[in-house]
Amino acid sequence: MARDANACARIARMRNALILAAALLSLPALSAGPAVKGPERGALVIVGGGKVGNEILTRMFDLAGGKDAPLVVIPTASGAEDYPPDWPGLRMFKTFGATNITLLHTKDRAVADSEAFVRPIVAAKIVWFVGGRQWRLVDSYSHTRTQREVERVLGVVAGSSAGASILASYMVRGARENNYIMMAPGYEEGFGLIKGVAIDQHMLTRNRQDDLEQVVAKHPDVLGIGIDESTAIIVQGQQFEIVGASKVAIHDGRVVKGSQERNGKKYFFMGPGEKYDLTKLEWIGKPKVSEQH
Fold it and tell me: How far apart (Å, rounded) are the C-alpha atoms in residues 245 and 103?
């Protein structure tokens, strides 16, 4: 009788262990942190708004092959109905010496999905998205032929302010009502040229350095990158380098060694010349002298 009781007890324990194992297997996997994927081809030049200095423009045009590189400027985010060939927003590029500029704009998704409209993008070495409101870019171009051709550009895809946030897979400040709402249902999907990332802009100038904390708290699989004005990250493969006048803040929801703590939120700042590893999610310092441009 004792042996039978012990056998029954062992069977019961085994059954309970199997039930527990099955229950654990049914739980969703917990993310260890953001999984970021940089561009497979070319480079991204992502600017935090404000004045775009010659240092940023020089790096961008050098990556694309020089000042004669075909440049397509998409101004749709700024909200005008039409843009004449002498639109003042092109002055920055003309002053710098760019010689081959095409202005491309539509609010009609059917046009944005047409072969004729995207022809300049197919030939472009640089595509630049102007600032304004990112929801306008979503309404006009998301999941159209325009977006697909932008993804295939072999040179540089770039943008400033709203044109920066749209390049990430998670898009912040997309609400039609105002640009203070960080997470707007229906306007949270960017173009995804850099995946696993949310990009904010005008960071220090507009006192936004804490704003990405709510995003990474709700979406721990997203790396938050806040970029100040007149500052850019240049993304190539699984690294980026900071160029320009100010700082970038990195938010990843983890307790990061050496990070600052501000109002109970954890992130850290990086400055011009510093690099970041998007695979390891680690600061990797300034490039060696032989690597600097």
Answer: 28
Q: What are phi and psi of 72, to 5 degrees?
A: -110, 125
Strands (DSSP E) found in 177-281: 194-200, 223-227, 231-236, 239-244, 248-251, 260-262, 265-270, 275-277
Q: Are strands 43-47 and 156-160 parallel, antiparallel or unpaired?
A: parallel
pLDDT value at residue 208: 97
8 Å CB contact between 234 and 257: no
CA angle 184, 164, 120 (to 5 degrees): 115
Q: Whole-model pTM? A: 0.86
Instruction: Tell me how many degrees the CA angle 222-225-231 measures, rounded to the nearest 5.
Output: 160
3-class DSSP state of 251: strand
Longest distance between any two alpha carbons in the chain, whole Å: 98
Partners of residue 1 on adjacent β-strands: none
Task: Encode burial over 85-105: b for 16+ CB neighbours within 10 A, e otherwise.
Answer: eebebbebbeeeebeeebbbb
Rounded distance, CA 100 to CA 90, Å?
11
Strand order in the sheet with 156-160: 101-103, 71-74, 126-129, 156-160, 43-47, 231-236, 239-244, 275-277, 282-285
For residues 17 and 22, give the distance between their C-alpha atoms in angstroms, rounded to a whole number. 9
Contact predicate 129/77, CB 8 Å? yes
Task: Name the stretches of the chain with pLDDT < 50.
Answer: 19-31, 292-293
Q: DSSP letter at 189?
A: B
Please tell me the distance from the alpha carbon of residue 38 to that of residue 161, in angstroms, as a whole number.
19
For β-strands 282-285 and 239-244, DSSP reports them as unpaired
pLDDT in tens, 92-121: 999 999 999 999 999 999 999 999 999 999
Rg (CA), the chain: 23
Distances (CA, A) of 6 to 2, 14, 18, 57, 131: 6, 12, 18, 78, 74
Q: What is the arrangement of strands in the sheet containing 265-270, beginning at the earlier edge strand? A: 168-170, 194-200, 223-227, 248-251, 265-270, 260-262
At 137, which amino acid appears?
Answer: L
